[in-house]
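I am writing to request your help with a piece of structural work I have in hand. I set the record out below, with my sincere thanks for your time.
___
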Amino acid sequence: DGGYGYDDRPDRRRQQPRKKNTSTILLVLAGILVLVGAILIGKYAFSGGGGPGDSTVAVPALIGQTQDDAEKQ
């Protein structure tokens, strides 16, 4: 055969193991779980925790004022 050309014998063809599909699926699921976890942690961190006792802060309206007037408030 010499290693060239088409080989008619199917037993000599390389076959992909089924285990490879399982590991790919597990890798994709792990990636999705990491992504969902990162989103939830980000929402929790940027929302201030979302627990009781969250309060709003009053911010004065400074539009149209000079810097000196705004700093006096």
About this structure: The mean pLDDT is 79. DSSP finds two helices and no strands in the chain.
